[in-house]
Design brief:
The complex is a heterodimer of chains A (about 425) and B (about 350). Chain A has about 425 residues and is of the alpha/beta class. Chain A contains 14 helices and 8 strands. The longest helix of chain A is centred in the middle third of the chain and has 28 residues. The chains are: A alpha/beta (about 425), B mainly beta (about 350).
């Protein structure tokens, strides 16, 4: 039992060190934004896929925004992927098709397998361009975003690109403010540090792009996956394609405004991530492929992010059990010093990362909300652990993975 | 005080101490003083001409005044809408007619000329300058920003701190320091030892254009770029070399260093994670990307974007892009020899310089 505990403590320390490494890199390291300066080029044909399942509250916003972006005329086609919507989504899309002839080609999907990956997979029959961009329907791209997301594809090593997600409904309540802080840390520090260090920036499946030939090489969209973005990241990596992150390609999104929706969302992410961990983890670490050693290590750590919640809970339980059984790990004194050191440094790591991210963003007062993140952390650790447990029980019972759409909160226009 | 009261007081005190660090959090949650979304640029796409366009709009109120000044040849002064002082010049096609001629003098008003504007040497302009016709600046001048409706010519050792936009041609003599954005709707010519950051024009030439050069000549296989064509990809885990004179059809990715021999022809794009060296006369249809330093030899022709993550040197006679297919050349540090032509954008994040061959 004690050795399991030692192992868990070791893994937690690895993640703590990783937090510090990323944060210090962002604060003091060389920052890589290699493609952001490409403002003049022979811009390739691009297809923009907008995944939409019952999105009447938001779909018109993104289509309007896409119709005003700055991209050479006739070189961009928008395909709204209307996935079995039962609300007014179809009518709104058809209205846009009429208003902007030749610029929008709708893909109305009436049946088939549920989930974003399945819908995108079906929509690929309409895609003929080498560069594909993907947006969820609740995003609002700015004028220069399409060029910024296309630019990395001039690099023949790049198979996928990911932009930065910025919450729009920040001030709604405590949850949205906490999610804003989490996103800030996740993108401004985590993703950009991975880009700087040539590790594994994660494809987010929205505000993102993929190269058609790379997608074909890896076998297309995986409709068995709950998180097609994580799945895509690892399959690209295993086939020698890079996913790059563009921190300055920012796009507004809507974050969940209720805890119930947030819990559902994070549980889906956790299940999808764990699914990818089981599928690709060992192969990435030990298999014969083109990923570098640092990509292998970072890739596995990234895959393990959601598994850390149940592992941490297990660690707590083991620590209590060890204590009540009267075992003194590492002769007591060393354990006490270690605990004190971790309380000071380890617990601070995630907060330091988010505070540094907010500082890099030029925001100040929102940092004072950091103590409330413990609340978000508590909700996450139990929700993610619950997701992992239900995943194990699904495995035993043979139940199929179920894809849940995230509810929107914007008012219908 | 009885013991239970003391315990209660202690608990209360400890609770208050624990709550103390949360006070700023509660205050911020209630006041929402920093609860607006991060400011994302939604409307403009970072165009190089953004400031020039804004200045043109800003100065539009002077149009009637300038017309009158041009007609009468007089000079007028006053305040713009935001209280900034201006000097409207009707005629200034001789440096001696410029109101300030004393070398070393400072001009602290916005200058607007309805027609050609010729300014004397060693003047520091603290405000923006507008020229309705040609603009010609003397040596050793310092400018904040210039908008010219025709050609702009800067004298030797001039400095620009923010931006310049010329509707016609922009040219700068030796040793100029061009910080900020320099753009032209026609052409940019920089002489030796000029420093630059961001340049954009249909054609950018450094030093003297080689005799017999035809700027309208397209590069070979001009009609494709890296993003649109689906071609085979060759992936090499270590260093790689394309031999002199070799013809390769496909994209090349080398995870180490890459050397492309003289006269090689690549029908595709090329990437190296390490340093990249191109020999003379290499022709490349797609883009050229290096994760570190890049050296482009003489007389090369590259159609797609050129990106070096650390440093880039372009040798004489090389052409980047074409008039039909403009492109971007970018690196933190760029050295461009005399006799290089870039069609589109030349962008040095930290330092760019025109150097002798």
């Amino acid at each position: 039992m004690i050795y399991v505990l030692y192992f868990i403590v070791f893994v937690i320390c690895v993640y703590t060190a990783r937090h510090y490494w990323f944060t210090l890199n962002r604060l003091f390291g060389f920052q890589r934004h290699p493609y952001i300066d490409i403002d003049t080029a022979s811009w390739p044909l691009v297809t923009v896929l907008v995944a939409a399942h019952n999105e009447e509250k938001v779909i018109s916003n993104i289509l309007s925004a896409l119709m005003t972006v700055k991209y050479p005329e006739g070189r961009m086609l928008v395909i709204p992927v209307n996935d079995r919507s039962t609300d007014g989504t179809r009518a709104i899309i058809d209205d846009f098709v009429e208003r902007f002839p030749g610029r929008i080609q709708p893909f109305h999907r009436a049946g088939g397998k549920g989930g974003k990956a399945a819908a995108l997979k079906d929509a690929m029959e309409l895609v003929t361009t080498e560069v594909i961009l993907i947006f969820d329907a609740d995003y609002i791209p700015g004028a220069g975003l399409i060029k910024q997301l296309v630019a990395p594809f001039f690099d023949p090593e790049v198979g996928g690109v990911m932009g930065r997600v910025v919450p729009l409904n920040v001030g709604t309540n405590l949850l949205t403010r906490l999610l804003d802080l989490e996103r800030t840390g996740g993108y401004q520090v985590d993703q950009q540090a991975r880009m700087n260090l040539r590790l594994v920036p994660q494809h987010g499946g929205t505000v993102a792009g993929v190269r058609l030939s790379a997608l074909r090489e890896i076998g297309g969209w995986n409709d068995q996956s709950l998180t097609e973005d994580t799945d895509l990241t690892y399959r690209l990596l295993l086939h020698g394609w890079k996913t790059v992150y563009q921190n300055r390609s920012e796009c507004y999104e809507e974050v969940p405004e209720t805890w119930a929706v947030r819990i559902k969302q994070i549980m889906r992410w956790a299940k999808g991530h764990n699914q990818a961990m089981v599928t690709y983890g060992l192969r990435l670490l030990l298999g014969k492929h083109r990923a570098t050693l640092r990509e292998r290590i970072d890739g596995v750590l990234l895959l393990g992010v959601y598994a850390m919640a149940p592992v941490t809970l297990l660690g707590w339980a083991l620590a209590l059990a060890v204590f009540f059984r009267g075992v003194a790990p590492l002769h007591g004194v060393i354990a006490l010093f270690s605990l004190t050191a971790y309380a000071a440094l380890g617990n601070l790591a995630a907060f330091f990362e988010i505070a540094a991210a907010a500082r890099l963003d030029g925001t100040r007062r929102r940092i004072s909300l950091l103590p409330f993140l413990i609340l978000g952390f508590a909700v996450s650790i139990f929700s993610v652990s619950r997701a992992a447990l239900s995943q194990v029980s699904d495995l035993v019972t043979g139940a199929e993975l179920h894809w849940d759409k995230t509810e929107r909160f914007r008012k219908v226009l | 005080m009885n013991s239970s009261l003391a315990v209660a007081a202690l608990i209360l005190f400890v609770s208050l101490m624990l709550m103390l660090p949360l006070v700023p959090a509660f205050v911020e949650l209630r006041r929402k003083s920093d609860a607006s979304p991060l400011n994302v640029v939604q409307q403009h796409a970072g165009e190089i001409r953004h400031f020039a366009n804004s200045f043109r709009t800003y100065i539009q109120v002077l149009e009637p005044t300038l017309r009158q000044c041009v007609a009468s040849g007089a000079t007028a002064s006053g305040l713009l809408n935001d209280g900034v002082e201006y000097l409207a010049l009707g005629r200034c096609d001789d440096s001696q007619t410029f109101p300030i001629v004393q070398p070393g003098a400072t001009c602290s008003v916005t200058i607007a000329a309805g027609s050609d504007l010729i300014v004397p040497r060693k003047i520091t302009f603290l405000r923006d300058v507008y020229a309705g016709g040609q603009f010609s600046g003397g040596d050793n001048n310092s400018y904040r920003a210039i908008l010219g409706e025709k050609d702009i010519h800067l004298g030797r050792s001039s400095r620009v701190t923010r931006w310049v936009h010329a509707v016609g041609e922009f040219s700068a003599e030796h040793d100029c320091e061009l910080s900020g954005r320099i753009s032209s709707d026609s052409r940019i010519r920089l002489q030796g030892a000029c420093n630059f950051l961001r340049l954009n024009a249909p054609q950018i030439d450094t030093g003297h254009v080689m005799p017999g050069e035809d700027s309208t000549r397209p590069n070979s296989e001009d009609d494709t770029n890296a993003g649109s064509g689906v071609v085979q990809r060759f992936l090499y885990d270590g260093d790689f070399e394309v031999h002199a004179g070799e013809v390769v059809t496909g994209n090349i990715v080398a995870r180490g260093k890459l050397h492309i021999g003289a006269g090689a022809r690549i029908c595709g794009s090329v990437k190296s994670v390490g340093d990249m060296v191109l020999g003379s006369g290499v022709s490349l249809q797609g883009s050229l990307i290096s994760g570190k330093k890049m050296l482009i030899g003489p007389d090369c022709a590259v159609n797609g974007p050129i990106i070096a993550e650390r440093a880039l040197r372009i040798s004489a006679g090389t052409r980047c892009g074409s008039l039909q297919h403009p492109t971007t050349v970018s690196a933190p540090r760029i050295e461009v020899e005399d006799g290089v032509t870039v069609f589109g954008t030349l962008w040095a994040r930290e330092h760019g310089e025109v150097v002798a061959n």
